[in-house]
What does this fold into?
Amino acid sequence: MKTFIENFLPKHTLLKYVNILFKLKKWQLVAGIVLAAEFFTFIMNSLQSFIWWNFWSLDLILIGTIDALFIAGILAPLVIALVTQTARYAEFRRITEEKTKEQAEISEEEKKFKHYIENSIDTVTVVDANGYIIYESPSVKRIFGYDPQDLVGRSAFEFIHPDDLKFALDIFSKAVNKPFSTNELEVRFLKKNGEWAYIHISGKNMITDPVIKGIILNVSDTTERRAIEDQLKKSIAEKDTLMKEIHHRVKNNFMTVSSLLSIQAEMLNDTKVNGVFLECQNRINSMALIHEKLYQSDNFSEIEIHSYVQRLISFIQSSYIGNGTLININLHIDNSIKLETGRAISVGLILNELLSNIYKYAFPKSCDAEVHISIFKKNNFYNLTVKDNGAGFPEGFDISTSRSLGLKLVQMMTLQMHGSLEMSGKNGAEFKIEFPV
It folds into this structure.
């Protein structure tokens, strides 16, 4: 039947007529056969009547109908069977062609993926639920020296460094019970030449997948990267040690200068000159403290400002302990604020000058002396406020015309930080400094 149909009609013509006939119902096919047979027998009987008897009769219609029904009874089952078989064959050929096309596309994709895997920078390994290798990509030869067939069937844990084995087994035992889970680890792997290589493994559990039935491992050699990282860490550690030593020596040099000034001051009996020496010492100490904090810190670019200000205040208080003025200093500083070294020095010098002025001038009489120091961040600005309840500014005081070196330093440090300075002499002195983050 198949050969007959293929020889009877070309492929495209066959499908065209089959599609038309296949859409008809069986009673429509039978009715068509009956009408065709009726028309055929009527024509044949009429020709026969004219040829043989030279007349035409209405009985011919009855005779033709009987003949048509007889012919349809014979042909209808055959035609229906032929159309059904032809439709089945056409559908079979359509499905076969689609499958052939799909298989060709799949085969092409398989070739591509195989090419990708074989030329991958990393190796692709598949292990079963017990850790035995069931597939190894050809790139393992180039990276680790093994032929793929040397590894298939062996346990992947044979090649893990003994010190890393427990770590790898723990991760594997957890991952194997979690379908489609992903994990990463870094261990040492034994190469064919006997050397240990650091490898990074990215794995996905595909054991329940009917095609893969294992855990896919993407393995990359990280030995070179690890060596570079170790060298960088060593270099950074050396630089950290060097930076600590530099800050320690700078701090010691500052303290040496401060001690020399103290000795020089003791040799003089001039109170005014001694005061100048003391101010210089305090300025030096404020900068020395910065380097001390940097020496003690792991971060050489920023200073935690709260602890720095506390130490600075202790130094200043100890410097003026002999003038008889006891001042209660209240700190309101956000513990999270860290300033880069340059700004921390500027803030330290500003606080040193303002507190020194407070100790010298704010409280000429014994009273409940209080100073409030606050540093906080608002929007993109830092706000530094120093306020006391002392005598305030003298009448007609103008900082721009003041001859005080300390206040000039406050102005200079504020400008250096691109900040602004506001002063108020009501109910004591108040300095507000705002500078951008």
In short: The longest strand covers residues 196-206. The mean pLDDT is 77.
